[in-house]
Each structure stands twice: as structure tokens, then as C-alpha cells.
Amino acid sequence: MKKTPFPLEALRELFLNALPEEQVQADEKSPELSRFYVPTTHIRALNPNNMLVEGIRGSGKSFWWAALQDERHRELVADLLPRSELAHTHCCAGFGQTKSDNYPSKRILKALIEKYEAQDIWQTVVVWNTLELDKMPKNSWAARIDWVKANPELIERTFIDTDKQLQEQGSKKLILFDALDRAADDWGSLRRLLKGLLQVLLEFRSSRAIRLKAFVRPDMLEDAQVSAFPDGSKVISSKVKLDWPKIELFSLLWHYLGNEPDQGQLFRQFCQERFLEEWTKHSSGVWLIPDKMRTIEALQREIFHKLAGPYMGSDARRGFPYTWLPNHLADGYDKTSPRSFLAALHTAASDHLRDKQSYPLHYQSIKKGVQAASSIRVRELSEDYPWIDKLMSPLKGQTVPCQFNAIIRRWEQKKVLKTLEQVNNEVVVRLPPSRLEQGYEGIKQDLVELGIFRLMRDGRINMPDVYRIGYGLGRKGGVKPVR
Q1: Could you say which of 380, 408, 434 is where a domain stops?
Q2: What is the CATH number for 187?
Q3: For residue 277, what pLDDT is reported?
Q4: I need a surface site. Which of 243, 296, 395, 418 has the fewest CB within 10 A?
Q5: What pLDDT is stored for residue 5 in this prediction?
Q6: How far apart are CA 102 and CA 10, in angstroms?
Q7: CA-to-CA distance for 106 and 456, rounded, in angstroms?
Q8: Which residues partner with 92 through β-bridges?
Q9: Looking at beta carbons, which pairs linking 67-74 to residues 24 or more positions away fall under 8 Å?
């Protein structure tokens, strides 16, 4: 077969048009099908029987929360992943960042948590979204909670009947909880809300057709108080992780490139002519990635190296793009978010560095992409944990790995502990370090659990590039920090 000479500029333009600059999905909107990749490794996380799903920032928790509420997306998942058991499942939101009549907002929760047990609040949310009870008050959440508490036998009987009826119909009701870190502005209230939700999850483990699913960040489950109730460990131990292994990240890239509305044909033709991999079109209109391109790393590596070159420099000593890119975007738990991955590639494609290489992406441009993704990651952390900036700004210029004492000295020079305590007392910061009262050692543990610090075997502190670069720390031989 004669190979078509693909113009570099056309392939670069395809990357720019296909990949979002920051991959920020609007919580209230389902993603376009052209940007809706269904990872095989997410089967367990999507299955209604798995009620607790853990994922880092940018791993797709809000993405799935929104997508599962959309019938078209849910049907596509059910068709592509039958073992997800999402066929004939109706989904609705039990909590999320977007305001809704389905659940109380953060402001309302703040008032409710002062008067009611968190378990009663979430139980009422489930009742409101599941059962058809004409007598249930509609004027306020407080009135609904009071009514649910006053009618336990009616509620229990109706749940049993509804669950049985759904089973007979061969259908399920799935209630989704997301953005729980935004349910409160202080750790005390958040712990209570999380604990109450886990208690409700445990209560519904025995139901067959009424299911709950909560998407949470790893650091939210580290606090022992959250699971401090009978059989709480069973809920935590049954959690499913929403991970993106390297093979899924590159499959995500293929999906975006192959489904770009105007130029996707260019990439599909590229795959067909050079690797004999032919795409098929699903009845939904989505082009499906050939099986080998989704499952064989050696083939994925070959394809990506046709786009980015074989090395991250002039030879193999600098590494290989297929492994180098996800490795340098991983956090302290070696988890890489698809958001960072796509943002890095978008930046790399937009960089017009030229040399004798005949590839759409230059290795130096990929390094710039990692710098851009790191800056985005740092900005996201600042949104979630404003106090982290107060810890990291004094460390700018510090080389890692280093002894923790070197970090403490910089913190002491800037009186970081005093600053954090003052800000915390003024209630300016949202969700301060959970171990602030333990001093520097407690803060270190908080940063380790967030995946920002990485403890080495010899006790030194290291930082993954995805954070180190954006915060301006150095490392011998590493990607230069953002200035």
C-alpha cells in the first residue's frame, strides 16, 4: 500500500483542534461524544455495585458524574462495557458542584449540619431522589429531614417495595455523589458529612436495584474519623480506584485524534496506512479505536514515536517519549491525570520549534508541555487548597531531593506555621492542613498524602515533576522549573 505523505502542519493542527487546552469539563454538562472515551479499566469504577470510587484531581470523577446522568453516554458505556452493568440504569445526582433541586447546596448544608446528623441529611437526599412519596414536604430540606426521621417504618417499607419493583423490571436506580470536598469549608463539618455519607453507603449495600456511588479524592479518606463507625472499614476496603494507566492515556489520545470532527479522518488514515489498523464506526457516530491500538503497548509506543520521534533528545539516554511523558506528569502516587496529559500535548503541538526532525511533536516541545501542565496542576491545587501556596512559595529555588530539615529552615525563615495559624483562625483559608496542630511533621504528612511530597527510602523529600516544576523547585538533570 502506498503511504500518503502526511504534512506535519496538518497533524499539528489536528492535535490543536482535537485536544482541549486544559481539558476542563463543565460539571453541569455531559462531554461531547467525540471527547467521550470509555476506558476498559474503568469497568469496576462504573459498575453500580461498587459504591465508593477514589480518584485524584483530574482523573475523571466529575466527568463520569456528569456523563452517567446522560442517557446517550450511559447507553454507549453499557454497550461497549457490558460488565459495567449500566444497562437499564437511571442515574441522578445526590450531590455535586452544580446547584440542583436534587440536593442541598453547601450553604444549606452548613445550616443543616448544625441541627441534624449527617447520616440523616444524606438519607433524606436518597429518599427524595428515589421514592415517590406524596406526603414528603417540598418546601425545605429541614422539613424533609424532619419528615423522614418521623416516618422510619414507611420509608423502610417503601424502599423494600421500590427495590423489589425495580428488580422485577430489570432496572436500577443509581444516585451519584461528587465534589464532596466542596460540601463544607472546615474539616470538622466535612468529616461529619463524609462519615454520614459512608454510613448511608453501607446501609444500601444490601439493596439490589437502588444503588449509590460516591466519587472522592484519596486524601478525603485518609482521616480515620471518617470511617469511625461499625463496619466503616468495610466501606473503605471496598473502594475502587479511578486510575489511568499509560495504555489508557494513549488510547484517550487516539480517541480524541480519531474523532476530531473535521480532521479525524487524517489520523484514521495515518493508522490504516502505516499500521494496518482500521477504525470502525459505532451506531452512536463515534469512531472506535482498533483493539490492538488500545491493548498492545508496543504498538502504542510505535504510533506515538511516529508522531513525536523515538527519543527525548538526540539519543536514547534522555528517554523515550511514550514513557517519558506520563512519568513526568505523575504525582507522588505515580498517578497521571488525563487532564494533565492532554494539556501537555496541546501545548507541545502549539510550540512551533523547528529542527531536522520530521515529526509533528518535538521533544523540546513536549518538555514545554510538561511545564504548562505543571502550571495548570499547581493552579488547581491553589483552588482546592489555598494554604499550599503559603508552604510552597518559600521553597522556590530549593533543589530536591533534600533533607526535610532544609525545608523546615525555609519555612521557619518565612514563619509559615504562624501564617497558617493566623489565616486558619481568620477563616480565610478553605480546608486548612488537617494536621496543622502537629506542626511541621503533620504538614509534611498532609503533603505526602496529597501526592505533592514523596518520601524516599533514606528519609529525604522528593517532589514529582508535575508539582516541582510549577512551584519552581529544581532537580539536577530534570525539566527546568517554571520561572
Answers
A1: 380
A2: 3.40.50
A3: 93
A4: 418
A5: 64
A6: 46
A7: 39
A8: 175
A9: 67/30, 67/31, 67/36, 68/174, 68/176, 69/30, 69/93, 69/176, 70/30, 72/30, 72/33, 72/284, 73/30, 73/31, 73/33, 73/36
Query: Is there a domain that residue 5 lies in?
Result: no
Q: Are residues 97 and 230 in the same domain?
A: yes
Residue 122 pLDDT exceeds 80? yes
Under DSSP, the state recorded for 399 is B
For residue 25, pLDDT over 70 is answered with no
- CA 465 → CA 303, 331, 372, 378, 390, distances in Å? 25, 8, 11, 11, 19
Q: Does the residue 456 lie in any domain?
A: yes
Q: What is the percent of the chain with per-residue pLDDT over 90, rounded to a whole number? A: 78
Q: What is the pLDDT of residues 267-296, one digit of tens each?
A: 999 999 999 999 999 999 999 999 999 999
Q: Note whether 292 and 277 are within 8 A (CB).
A: yes
Beta bridge partners of 454: 462
Based on the fold, state whether residues 183 and 257 are members of the same structural domain. Answer: no
What residues are paired with 336 via a beta bridge? none
The secondary element (H helix, E strand) that includes residue 93 is strand 89-95
Q: Is 227 helix (H, G, I), strand (E, B) or coil?
A: helix
Grid cell 510552597 is found at 392
Same domain for 392 and 338: no
Q: Is residue 22 part of a domain?
A: no
Whether residue 213 is found in the same domain as residue 331: no
SS3 454: strand
| Residues β-bridged to residue 90 | 173
Residue 340 shares a structural domain with residue 454 = no
Do residue 252 and residue 225 come from a single domain?
Answer: no
Q: Which residues contact 168 (CB under 8 A, 6 or more apart)?
A: none
**Do residue 228 and residue 361 come from a single domain?**
no
Instruction: Count Cα neighbours of 325 within 13 Å in the Cβ-side half-sphere.
Output: 36
Across the range 442-471, mean pLDDT stands at 94
Span 193-209, average pLDDT: 96
- Give helix then strand counts, H and E, for the chain: 22, 9
Mean pLDDT of 151-180: 97
What is the identity of the amino acid at 344?
A: A
8 pLDDT more than 70: yes
- Contact present, 204 and 212 (Cβ < 8 Å): yes
- Select from 336, 364, 380 the last residue of a domain: 380
Q: Once rounded to an integer, what is the mean pLDDT over residues 327-342?
A: 93
Q: Are residues 86 and 211 in the same domain?
A: yes
CA diameter of the chain: 76
The total number of residues written for the chain in this structure: 483
Residue 383: pLDDT band with limits 50, 70, 90 = confident
* pLDDT tens readout for residues 293-308: 999 999 999 999 999 9
Would residue 478 count as lying in a domain?
no
Which residues constitute the domain of residue 315? 246-380
CB 302 within 8 A of CB 53: no
Contact 434, 450 (CB under 8 A): no
Domain total in the chain? 3
- pLDDT at position 32: 87
